[in-house]
Design brief:
By secondary structure, this protein is of the alpha+beta class. The chain contains three helices and twelve strands, in the order E-H-E-E-E-E-H-E-H-E-E-E-E-E-E. The protein is elongated, with a radius of gyration of 24 Å. The chain starts with a strand and ends with a strand.
Length: 182
């Protein structure tokens, strides 16, 4: 029988434990021929902290979900469903429904060509948001205070409205040039 990808729902934060428990149970019960693979889709996220310090961490694409490639029969469904931390399968009325290949590829950030990885830009996030007050730390406008009007985390730049010569002036700065005023 052909193995297909299924999505299982887990308790929040239990994805890695469910994967480890499933792998252990598969080995103990000799079910390697029926359950072939277990994946937790992740992506790298770069956060930009105060002062422009960049911190890269791995983040789950689908929190509380794990992908399992297995034969779709009552034995495997029951085996997976009875793993500690698993709350059920994704599908109509809790009945397991396999993913289409295009859905799996999209989740795993791959192209329609089997096994070919696609270059996916890393996601960047920052704690600076429009409307926040910031102080310029460096450059010719150091020590000016302003209000953030736009944030472009991907490029690492923000637009700040500074009071220069008695009028608000939009200035583009890099994230490492500003700090949030508490």
């Amino acid at each position: 029988m052909a193995k297909r990808w299924y999505v299982i729902h887990t308790y929040s934060g239990y994805e890695n434990k469910v994967k480890a428990d499933l792998e252990h149970r598969i080995e103990m019960m000799g079910m390697q021929d029926q359950i072939a693979d277990i994946q937790i889709p992740t992506e790298e996220v770069t956060e930009i902290k105060d002062g422009g310090k960049r911190e890269t961490k791995e983040s789950k694409v689908l929190p509380s979900y794990v992908l399992v490639r297995m034969e779709g029969n009552d034995d495997t469904w029951s085996f997976v469903r009875n793993t500690p931390g698993v709350t059920g399968f994704v599908g109509p009325d809790g009945k397991p429904s396999p993913l289409r290949r295009s859905e799996f590829d999209k989740i795993m950030r791959r192209s329609g060509v089997r096994g070919a990885a696609v270059s996916v830009p890393k996601r960047t996030s920052t704690n600076i948001e429009p409307g926040q007050s910031v102080r310029v730390l460096s450059g010719p406008l150091a020590d000016f205070d302003g209000i953030v009007s736009e944030v472009s985390a991907e490029s690492g730049k923000i637009k700040v409205m500074l009071m220069i010569f008695g009028r608000e002036t939009p200035v583009e700065l890099t994230l490492d040039q500003v700090t949030v005023i508490a």
